[in-house]
Specification:
With 247 residues, the protein is α/β, with parallel strands linked by helices. The protein has eight helices and seven strands; from the N terminus they run βαβαβαβαβαβαααβ. The chain has one domain: Rossmann fold (3-Layer(aba) Sandwich), CATH 3.40.50.720. The protein is globular, with a radius of gyration of 18 Å.
């Protein structure tokens, strides 16, 4: 059986990825603070493997413990897909007014967690073929008013992905690392963005219009585009894929 580990699988894109992969007969390891009960019930009804592992992805120790447990549960596996999907957009604020705790949370969840997860699994599963999919953002490629921390962490995720892929190519390793930019989706993150202030985020009216004019894609649509890409077997190590080029 093929397996997938998905962080942030309780809602949004993570839940949509998990749902699609269950339909492709993947075993799912869900990693998030809270379990998605609908996902668990769906897996039980279809007699599919879906195990939830509660984890605080802002805490390095929690990551180490959780993913060590997952490796033990996995045992020997020929192929594994790892979706570093969990992310936070806060703090949405200008530099000079950033809340320290929110900045640390952003750095830990968006950047430190994918690095630690990838490092641990690369080390522990050296004999398996592991495909790491790091969810990034268009914000990684351009500055956005009020998003200095989010832009910075996502830009760093892109560089980490490319550097890690280069190392695998150089050492002739089995692992593959790609980035995936999902574009604008109708998720809780978009709601958080729309709830910010004009002073903190100058583009707030544009983002409100995305919702009002029906321009936000569903998480399922984006997840399907990503899974179709992965199932095609044509991904390029180190590439940063954008959903707009896949749909």
């Amino acid at each position: 059986m093929k397996f997938a580990i998905i962080t942030g699988a309780s809602k949004g894109l993570g839940a949509a990825i998990a749902t699609r992969l269950l339909g492709e007969d993947f075993g799912i390891f869900s990693v998030s603070r809270m379990e998605n009960e609908d996902l668990r019930k769906h897996a039980e009804e279809q007699n599919l493997f879906c195990a939830h592992f509660p984890c605080d992805l802002s805490d390095p120790k929690s990551i180490e413990i959780t993913f060590s447990e997952i490796v033990e549960k996995l045992g020997d596996t020929d192929e594994l897909w790892v979706f570093n999907n969990a992310g936070v957009v806060e703090p949405i604020e200008k530099v000079g007014k950033l809340d320290t705790e929110s900045v640390v949370q952003n750095l830990n969840v968006n950047l430190l967690a994918p690095i630690l997860i990838t490092n641990l699994l690369t080390q522990r599963l050296a004999k398996s073929k592991v495909t790491f999919i790091n969810v990034t953002s268009g914000a990684a490629e351009r500055p956005i008013h009020g998003w200095s921390t989010y832009c910075s962490t996502k830009a760093a995720v892109n560089m980490f992905t490319q550097a890690g892929a280069l190392e695998q190519e150089t050492s002739k390793g089995k692992h593959v690392m790609i980035g995936f930019s999902p574009g604008i989706m109708d998720t809780d993150m978009q709601q958080t963005i729309r709830s910010s202030s004009k002073e903190a985020f100058h583009d707030i009216e544009k983002f409100k219009s995305y919702k009002e004019e029906g321009q936000l894609r569903s998480a399922a649509t984006v997840a399907n585009a990503l899974i179709d890409l992965l199932l095609s077997g044509s991904i390029v190590n180190g590439e940063i894929y954008h959903v707009n080029k896949l749909i």
